[in-house]
Model the fold of this input.
Amino acid sequence: MTAARSERSSQRPTISDVARRAGVSTGTVSRYLNGGHWVSAESSKAVTRAIRETGYVANSTARRLRTGRSGTVAFVVDEPPARFFEDPNFEALVIEVGEALAAREQTMVLLLAGDEDSAARAETFLRTSGVDGAVTASAQPEHHLFERIQAANIPLVNVGSPAGLEDRIAFVAADDREGARMMAEHLLAQGAREIAVIAGPEHTPGGTLRPGAFTEAVESSTVAGPAPRVVAVEHGDYTAASGREAATTILATHPGIDAIFAANDMMARGAIDALHAQSRSVPDDVLVGGFDDSAGAATEAPHLTTVRQDFRRIAEELVDALGKQIDGGVRTNVTVPVELVVRDSTTLR
Done:
């Protein structure tokens, strides 16, 4: 290797290197690094991949002096620590959002606001830390998290559709309705006719959109034989314990059910535990489907039929949407496609 070649190979990758690898202009890369305004989703993905492949690191100090921004985004999860660490979806989202921000040379700080005092401290931090924006998840209505952040004039994007606030709060959400519809059609095709639903809290998409779309799909079905129906809807809090409790309540009043749809995988696991406690086999006696395709869905027995959310795609869209709002005050709502994943919990032998 010549000295000149060695010198070139040791140089830091530049924006031009990233642009060549991504097949876009240097202007596109620059806009991506400064929030993604006017950069298409396809180009954003190409640039993200090129940054990883080239090892490009932006000169964040110069950029912050030029833009007057801190380069820091807060990820605010409105849950107590125990609940946060129990739910694998939070871990997946935090990792993916952190990586999507890092690709733009932005830093993420994680705030847990699971009670009134914690929510107040989170608000104080947001007002005083100089963060450029916030991503919110699992907002509890009684903590007024959205109102606190908006009152501080901080751009925000929510994970999931914010019930009743869709015209005021930017959000990125999995296609909850389509996922629930696909699950309903699958369970009906497997012969389910007496179906129970374990929904999430009523202020969440899993407590409204998913059970609502599922019930609509069942009631409008034209399958042969006895008309299918949703015989019970119980609300849980997305924990396995609440799924177990809800399923136990359902079985006490509707012992003849042949399927359960739970609005997340953890409640589905709790429902399976309740069924096994009453010597009901899954799937031979009762079919069970979940939502999320979270960690453990494909490894714990029985392997769980579920609706897969693409957490990486959701994270990238969150960062893109937040960048557009920071740059130009453009509020966007994005719905990300989902996929039905069929496994043992609904596959009859």
